[in-house]
UniProtKB/TrEMBL annotation, chain A:
Name of the featured protein: ATP-binding cassette domain-containing protein
Keywords: ATP-binding, Cell membrane, Membrane, Nucleotide-binding, Transport
Subcellular compartments: Cell inner membrane
Molecular function GO labels: ATP binding; ATP hydrolysis activity
Species name: Endobacterium cereale
Membrane topology label: Peripheral membrane protein
GO biological process: peptide transport; transmembrane transport
From TrEMBL, chain B:
Biological source species: Endobacterium cereale
Membrane topology: Multi-pass membrane protein
Official protein name in the record: ABC transporter permease subunit
Annotated ranges, domain ABC transmembrane type-1: 94-293
A single Gene Ontology CC term: plasma membrane
InterPro entries registered for this protein in UniProt: MetI-like, MetI-like_sf
One GO term of the biological process aspect: transmembrane transport
Family to which this protein belongs: Belongs to the binding-protein-dependent transport system permease family.
Length: 335, 307
C-alpha cells in the first residue's frame, strides 16, 4: 500500500497485558494490546492520566514496579523482550531501545557529572574507551543544541535549566543510536516555548538516525506536528488507531472525538472550555461492556452489554466502537 | 570551599571557650580536691602543693591563668603526676586509643554499609531478615555485656584470641576490643544505609540508569551508593568522635592503655588539669571530625558546594 506498510517491522506487541498485584486484588493496567511499530516510524500514544500509556512502555523496558507483571509478547526485531533474562535485557535496553522520561529535573543523577552520565552506556554497550566516549558524547550535545557543550559537559545537573536538562536526557537516550526511542511525555514539565524546540529536536534527530519514535502524551496538540500514526488509549486498551491526518479529520471513536473537541482554541473563552464529563473507570471494576460507555454521548444498549473489539474501518484506521462516527464518504452515500 | 572551612573553624572558637569555662567551674563545684586521700597530708605540705599549683589564689585568677596557658598551647600540669604534664600523658595514651578507634570506625563502616545495602537490595526477603536480626543483637546488647561474652568464648573456651591487654600490639590483641566497639555503630550505620538506599533506589534517576542497561552492579555502585551515603555521613561525624574518645568502658574491660583510662582516673582523683585537658582534646577532635563530615557532604552533594 503506502511505503509505511512496506517498511520492516521493528516492534510488535501481541496480546500484551500488564497486571499489578495489589492488596485489593489484581489491577489490569493494560489489556490485550496489539501494536506494530515499523522502522523509523513515529507513533503517538495518546490518553488521559491512568490510561496505561506510560505503563505499557515501562513494561517493555522492564521498568515496572515490583508488583507489575507483563503477559503476551513484545517482539523487538522478532525477539520477545518480555521473556529476556535481566542480563540479556540489559544488552537491549539503552542500546536498541531507549527511553526519555517525563521530568528532566529528577531523571538525571544529581551527584554525577553530566559527562559521567553520558559516556557510561557508550563504554558498556559499544565498548568505547573513556576518551572516545567523551568525543562522541560532546558531539551529541552539539546535535541536541546545547550551547558551549565543552563547558557544560563537566557540570552537575542542578547547574542546568530544565530545558537544558531535557536536551541532556535526549542526548543520553540517542547516544547509542537506538532503533526505538520511547518518549514519555517529554515536554510536559517544560515551558511552552521550550516545548516546541524539544519536539523539533525529536523530529529532526529521529529522522536523521532512522529511529522509530513512540511519543507518549496526553496532549493531542503535540501529536499533530510530530507523529505519522496515533493510537488512542482508554482504560488500558487501544480504542482507535489511525494515521495522524485521518485521526484529526475523521475521528471514529467518540472518545477520540471528545479529546479532539477538548483541545483549547485561542478564540475560546475560558468558561467555554470543553471537558469530557465523568472520569476514567476504576481499573478494578471495569464496566461489562465498552470501557467508555459510562461517559459516552452515543451510548446504546449493546455498548453496555459487551466490549467492542478493534475493527478496521479503512486502510490503517481501526476503532473499538459499535457506533463509530461515520466517515465522510459514508455520509455522502447515505445522503 | 576553603573559605567555608575557614569560617567553620572560626565559629568553633566561642564554642570551645564556653565549653572550657563551663567545664572549669563545674569541676571546682564538685566536692573534694586533687590532694584529698585516704591518708591526710600534713597541712604544711597541702599548703605548699596548693601554692605550687596556684590553688591558693582566687578562683577567677586561677581561671585566667588557665586560659592564658591554653592560648599559648599549654594544657598545664597534671596534679597526680609530677613526671608528665597533661599534654604528655594524652600523647602517651593517644596511639592506642587512636589505633583502636580508627580500626573500629573502619570496620563499622564496612560492615554497616555492606549489610545495609544487602538489606535494601533484598528488601523484605530472607537476607534482609537474617542480617537485620544479627545487627539488632549488636545494637541492643551493651558493650559491657558483649565484651565478657566474647572474652569467655574466644579467649577462654576456644582460646583463639587473648582475653585482654595490648601485648605487642599485633592484630590478635585488637580483634576483640575492635569488634566490641564497632558492633553497635555497624548496626546503626546498616539501618541508616538500608533506609536511605531503599529511598534512593526508588528515585527517577535510578530508573534512568536501569533504562540505560548499564547493569545492576553499576546502577548500585555508581548511581545509588553516593547519594545514599548522605545520611550515613552525617552519622559518621559523631560516631567517629565517639569511637576515638568513648572507648573508656572497652579500654578498661580489655585492660588497654588508652586515654580513656586517664580520663576516668583523672575524674575520680579530681585531677583538674587532666580532666580539662582531655575534655579540650575531645572537643577539638569533634570539631575537626565535623568539619571533615561537612567536606564529605560537599563531595557527595554537589549542590552544597555552591552555597
Amino acid at each position: 500500500m503506502t511505503d509505511q506498510t512496506q517498511k520492516q517491522v521493528l516492534l510488535e506487541l501481541k496480546d500484551y497485558s500488564i497486571t499489578f498485584k495489589t492488596p485489593d486484588g489484581d489491577v489490569k493496567a493494560v489489556s490485550n494490546m496489539n501494536l506494530t511499530v515499523r522502522r523509523g516510524e513515529r507513533i503517538a500514544i495518546v490518553g488521559e492520566s491512568g490510561s496505561g500509556k506510560s505503563q505499557t512502555f515501562l513494561g517493555i523496558m522492564g521498568l515496572l514496579a515490583k508488583n507489575g507483571q507483563t503477559s503476551g509478547q513484545a517482539l523487538l526485531e522478532g525477539r520477545d523482550v518480555l521473556s529476556l533474562k535481566p542480563r540479556e535485557l540489559d544488552k537491549v535496553r539503552g542500546k536498541d531501545m531507549a527511553m526519555v522520561f517525563q521530568d528532566p529535573m529528577t531523571a538525571l543523577n544529581p551527584s554525577l557529572k553530566i559527562s559521567r552520565q553520558l559516556t557510561e552506556q557508550l563504554e558498556i554497550h559499544r565498548g568505547f574507551t573513556a576518551r572516545a566516549a567523551s568525543v562522541e558524547a560532546l558531539d551529541m550535545l552539539k546535535r541536541v543544541g546545547i550551547p558551549d557543550p565543552d563547558r557544560r559537559f563537566n557540570l552537575y545537573p542542578h547547574e542546568l535549566s530544565g530545558g537544558m536538562r531535557q536536551r541532556i536526557v535526549i542526548a543520553m537516550a540517542l547516544l547509542t543510536k537506538p532503533k526505538l526511542l520511547i518518549a514519555d511525555e517529554p515536554t510536559t514539565a517544560l515551558d511552552v516555548t521550550i516545548q516546541a524546540q524539544i519536539l523539533d529536536l525529536f523530529n529532526d534527530l529521529t529522522a536523521e538516525m532512522n529511529t522509530a519514535l513512540l511519543m507518549i502524551t496526553h496532549d493531542l496538540g503535540v501529536v499533530a506536528g510530530l507523529a505519522d500514526r496515533v493510537a488512542v488509549m482508554y482504560a488500558g486498551r487501544i480504542v482507535e488507531e489511525a494515521p495522524v491526518d485521518e485521526l484529526f479529520e475523521k475521528p471514529a471513536h467518540p472518545y477520540t472525538a471528545a479529546l479532539h473537541a477538548a483541545i483549547p482554541r485561542p478564540d475560546q473563552d475560558v468558561d467555554d472550555l470543553v471537558v469530557i464529563p465523568g472520569r476514567p473507570p476504576n481499573l478494578q471494576h471495569l464496566p461489562k461492556g465498552c470501557n467508555f460507555s459510562p461517559r459516552c454521548p452515543k451510548v446504546e444498549d449493546d455498548c453496555i452489554d459487551r466490549p467492542p473489539q478493534l475493527e478496521t474501518l479503512a486502510p490503517q484506521h481501526c476503532a473499538a466502537c459499535f457506533h463509530p462516527f461515520p466517515r465522510r464518504e459514508e455520509l455522502l452515500t447515505h445522503a | 570551599m576553603l573559605s567555608y572551612a575557614f569560617r567553620r573553624l572560626l565559629s568553633t572558637i566561642p564554642v570551645l571557650w564556653i565549653a572550657v569555662t563551663a567545664c572549669f567551674f563545674v569541676l571546682r563545684l564538685a566536692p573534694g580536691g586533687p590532694f584529698d586521700g585516704e591518708r591526710s597530708l600534713p597541712p604544711a605540705i597541702l599548703q605548699n602543693l596548693a601554692a605550687h599549683y596556684n590553688l591558693d589564689k582566687p578562683l577567677i585568677q586561677q581561671y585566667l591563668y588557665y586560659v592564658g596557658d591554653l592560648l599559648r598551647g599549654d594544657l598545664g600540669p597534671s596534679f597526680s603526676s609530677e613526671d608528665f604534664n597533661v599534654a604528655q600523658q594524652i600523647m602517651i595514651g593517644l596511639p592506642y586509643t587512636f589505633t583502636l578507634g580508627m580500626t573500629a570506625f573502619a570496620l563499622a563502616i564496612i560492615i554497616g554499609v555492606a549489610v545495609g545495602c544487602l538489606g535494601a537490595l533484598y528488601q523484605n526477603k530472607m537476607p534482609d531478615y537474617v542480617l537485620g536480626a544479627m545487627i539488632l543483637v549488636g545494637v541492643v546488647f551493651p558493650n559491657f555485656l558483649i565484651a565478657p561474652i566474647l572474652q569467655l568464648v574466644f579467649g577462654i573456651q576456644l582460646a583463639w584470641l587473648p582475653v585482654g591487654g595490648w601485648g605487642d600490639g599485633s592484630l590478635k590483641y585488637l580483634v576483640l576490643p575492635v569488634v566490641v566497639m564497632a558492633l553497635p555503630h555497624a548496626g546503626r550505620i546498616s539501618r541508616i544505609t538500608r533506609g536511605s538506599m531503599i529511598e534512593v533506589m526508588n528515585q527517577n534517576f535510578i530508573r534512568t540508569a536501569k533504562a540505560k542497561g548499564i547493569g545492576p552492579r553499576l546502577t548500585v555502585m555508581r548511581h545509588a551508593l553516593k547519594p545514599a551515603m548522605m545520611p550515613v555521613v552525617s552519622y559518621l561525624g559523631p560516631a567517629a568522635s565517639y569511637l576515638l574518645t568513648g572507648s573508656l568502658v572497652v579500654e578498661s574491660i580489655f585492660g588497654l592503655p588508652g586515654i580513656g583510662r586517664y580520663f576516668i582516673n583523672a575524674a575520680l582523683n579530681r585531677d583538674y588539669g587532666m580532666v580539662l585537658g582531655t575534655v579540650i582534646f575531645y572537643m577539638v577532635l569533634i570539631v575537626f571530625l565535623n568539619l571533615i563530615v561537612d567536606i564529605a557532604y560537599a563531595w557527595l552533594d554537589p549542590k552544597v558546594r555552591n552555597r
